[in-house]
Amino acid sequence: MKSVEVVAAAIRRGDKFFATQRGYGQWKDFWELPGGKIEPGETPVQALVREIREELDAEISVDKFLATIERDYPDFHLKMHCYVCSLLTESLHLIEHEAARYLDYTRLREVHWLPADEQLLPLLAAELLDVDGELAAFLEEKIIPRYSAFDKAHREDHARSVVQRALQMAAFYPEANRDMLYAAAACHDLGLEVDRKTHHLESGRIIRGISEFGKWFSPDEIEIIAEAAEDHRASSDHEPRSVYGRLVAEADRLIEPEQIIRRTVQFGLSHYPELEKEGHWLRTLDHLHEKYYYGGYLKLWIEESPNAARLEDLRQIISDKILLRQIFERIWEEEIKQQQEI
């Protein structure tokens, strides 16, 4: 089998990496990091600068080496050297690719990657989150995929959203260990595998039983991570015991009014299929009042969180029963249509 050696650029802009979609060949429509073959006499860095100039009509700064990936394809063995880069030019142009996107941590897996590039995703996640790469590989490949078996409101996208928000807010708490917070956020809902009502406690039990965590954390740190998961639930009768619990709890409360209403409807459809439409409306109304309205049990723990203003927006919608019913009707129709298409 012949061997092909290539380079790839993980071009970073803020909290996103640049991805391109192939417009030709056997792997047409698959996504990749831009780059290409190393020509005779070139160093990998020289090849990368040339390839980006040819593919994107752009100049880059090659900032750091990320990883070398090896992968067997049907007709050849690929060796790919990946570097984190930044753009030196204000714009770029797609010369060989049919599409391109900037992807943040929560969207890295929304596109269909080439097999070799897919192997880089945990490392790209680690770069964006500023966490340990080996820990990211474990959490992204072994832990977060477990959420795929949960209800629609608690799938992998939910776990990654909680991770991202928690680590964003951690910027205000320099004393926080980002790896510990990452682990707590990634594992906070694992207890749904056992029981919904006590899932926060089950999550703590599961965390204490993950032997692999011993590679990165001390027993005391694992206990703090477990307590953070136990303390994240909005209906908890006590304040989180650490900054990790407060950050995970706050990150778990993504207060975007329409998304909360949608997830309430989604949960009802998943767990109470016997209810008619009016039953789901009443359940939605009761849940929103019980949890989010004035005097509801939801509490906010992080002063720097944007949730406070969004919570007030949601409360105004709840106060307007006609508007709330209009939003419910639209979401209901969308969710029922999607169920029928499946």
Description:
- With 342 residues, the chain is of the alpha+beta class.
- The chain folds into 3 domains: 2-125, Nucleoside Triphosphate Pyrophosphohydrolase, CATH 3.90.79.10; 130-252, Hypothetical protein af1432 (Orthogonal Bundle), CATH 1.10.3210; 257-341, no CATH class.
- The chain contains 13 helices and 7 strands.
- Strands 1, 2, 3, 4, 5, 6 and 7 form a 7-stranded mixed beta sheet that branches.
- Helix 8 (219-230) packs parallel to helix 9 (243-252).
- The longest helix has 21 residues, at 321-341.
- The chain is globular, with a radius of gyration of 23 Å.
- The model has no long low-confidence stretch (mean pLDDT 94).
Short description:
With 342 residues, the chain is α+β, with helices and mostly antiparallel strands. It contains 13 helices and seven strands.
Summarize the helices and strands and which ones pair or pack:
Layout: E1 2-13, E2 16-22, E3 31-32, E4 35-37, H1 44-56, E5 60-72, E6 76-87, E7 97-104, H2 115-118, H3 121-129, H4 133-143, H5 156-169, H6 178-187, H7 199-208, H8 219-230, H9 243-252, H10 257-271, H11 277-291, H12 307-319, H13 321-341
Helix pairs in contact: 3-4, 5-6, 5-9, 6-8, 6-9, 7-8, 8-9, 10-11, 10-13
Features:
7 strands; alpha+beta; 13 helices; Hypothetical protein af1432; seven-stranded mixed beta sheet; Nucleoside Triphosphate Pyrophosphohydrolase; 342 residues
**Percentage of residues in helical conformation:** 40-55%
Q: Give the biggest beta sheet.
A: 7 strands, mixed
Overall shape: globular
CATH topology grouping of the largest domain: Nucleoside Triphosphate Pyrophosphohydrolase
Which regions have little confidence, pLDDT < 50, spanning 5+ residues?
A: none
Q: What percent of residues are in strands?
A: 15-25%
Between the first and last Cα atoms, what is the distance in angstroms? 42 Å
Structural class: alpha+beta
* Averaged pLDDT: 94
The level 1 CATH classification of the largest domain is Alpha Beta
Q: What is the alpha-carbon Rg in Å?
A: 23 Å
> What is the number of helical segments per DSSP (H or I, 4+ residues)?
13
Number of strands: 7
* Tally of individual domains: 3
